[in-house]
Amino acid sequence: MKQKVLFVCLGNICRSPSAEAVFNALIEKEGFSEKFDVDSAGISGWHQGEPADRRMQQHAQKRGYNLTSISRPVTAKDFDEFDYIIAMDQANLRDLKDRARKPEHLKKIFLMTDFLTNPTHSEVPDPYYGGNQGFELVLDLLEDSTQNFLRFIQQK
């Protein structure tokens, strides 16, 4: 049975599509692609139907990641369908917990930075209003945390 992972940020155009792409690249490299279904979504529907932010796409492509997801909002059925729901920041985490309808839904929700090797950041910061270094930081944090997240799943 496939493990289903959903990465979540505010608008689903920077951080969560990047997490989806970085994790997909990792599981492909490790030979686990057939064991996972990976998606991303946003707390808000502001950017529904839009591709990832072009600046985020450009930074990701420099590292070999292709951001192909189209923005969509988190839905009530996501809590039933996904095994892991990974929030990029504290506000996303709070919003997801507020939307959880059952106790078992709460057990599926994690913060991406909980999986950092060296917890230098308490959240993956939103790069939308910043410069190039913000997009690079997002990718640095995601590359580190997705590896540890994969190990976490394997140990369960």
Molecular structure report:
The protein is of the alpha/beta class and about 160 residues long. The protein has one domain (about 5-150): Response regulator (Rossmann fold), CATH 3.40.50. Helices cover about 40% and strands about 15% of the residues. The two termini are about 15 Å apart.
SS content category: alpha/beta
Query: What is the number of independent domains?
Result: 1
Rg computed from alpha carbons, rounded to a whole number of angstroms: 14 Å
N-C termini distance: 14 Å
Which CATH class?
Answer: Alpha Beta
Largest sheet: 4 strands, parallel
- What is the succession of H and E elements? EHEHHEHHEH
Q: The CATH topology, please?
A: Rossmann fold
The side-by-side strand order for the widest beta sheet comes to 2-1-3-4
Total strands? 4
Corresponding CATH superfamily: Response regulator
Overall body shape: globular
Classify the helix fraction into a percent range: 40-55%
Average pLDDT, to the nearest integer? 96
Individual helix count: 6
Which short descriptors sum up this protein?
alpha/beta; 6 helices; 156 residues; 4-stranded parallel beta sheet; Rossmann fold
Topology:
Layout: E1 3-9, H1 15-29, E2 36-42, H2 54-62, H3 78-81, E3 84-87, H4 90-99, H5 103-106, E4 109-111, H6 132-155
Parallel strand pairs: 1-2, 1-3, 3-4
Précis, in short:
The protein is of the alpha/beta class. The chain has 6 helices and 4 strands. It has helices spanning 15-29, 54-62, 78-81, 90-99, 103-106, 132-155, and strands at residues 3-9, 36-42, 84-87, 109-111.
